[in-house]
Amino acid sequence: MESAIDTHLTACPRTISRRVPDAYQPPFPMFVGRADETLHQVTMAYLGVQYRDGGQRTAALAAVAEIVGTFDIADGPAHNDITRHTDKEGYVNLIVVGYWRDPAAFCRWLRSPDVNGWWDSPERLSGELGYFREIVSPRAEQFETLYAFTDNLPGVGAVMDDISGEINEHAYWGSMRERFPLSQTDWMESSGELVVVTGNPADGGRVVVQGHDNIALIRSGQDWREAGPEERALYLEEIQPTLQAGMDFLRDNGETVGCYSNRLVQNIDLDGNLLDETYNIGHWRSLEKLERWAESHPTHLRIFTTFFKVVADLDKLRLYHEVSVSDGANQIFEYLNCHPSTGMMRDAKVMASR
Q: Per the UniProt record, which residue ranges are transmembrane (predicted)?
């Protein structure tokens, strides 16, 4: 059985002890993505289009198509997908998610005339649509993955090189943290606050939020596209209701537990058709806040219990997650014409002088 932490990312000596003994044997197999030593850092970009009026759907999908079209120019992402969700305020949000293996390539793409010109165009501020970009670039030691399958990895796994064998660090509280290479020597504590540095959420227009070190981002996915009738029913009747309840709690009450933003999204194609795949996008003040909710809150305990009850029967139902932390200097949170509770704006402090 392998460690989730690859050999070239193993710290010696380890200064933070694990929660379980070395002889621990997990009750079922799980796997992690593997990347060779050339992967030093990745970029995860969540690029959103927001609208309230159903009559704006066509325009919003056209904007999504423009974003996806820029991925074909030089230095575009190695992997992307598109999602849809309705937020607490009743706004529909379409999000294009791109993954880059090299942040330098991402920066070149971001600064290209096709991308920068579109984002900075006055049209972004004058129409009925809102736009946002939430971007983090964790180093290789700052993220972890976990999969119940070994092929066609989604998300950040798509820009990695391989898949592990069965790994040891899962199925116990604290295992998420212990899959982080950085956890061997660093508690990954958060520092600072979310601060509005440009604009004012209440006024709309362009708002830039400054993040802080070790904001945690989780993407936790469920893919039932290939599932047969029994597994499909297992997901839709057993897993999805408890998942929805937990995600709704975080969407509506996340500020009480340290969750800055939570979105349960469903994948779509370029025409806006729903696909049989969902995932949760959660931004947390810290890994510790995410862990505390996961280990103690009734909404997550029900999700965890349900998963353990059905995991042995999974075949084509694909469950996974990826979790990262990032340095404040490697984060971008920017909003144009979005309602003031969008993303990181809800919890960001507006300076008194603004």
A: none
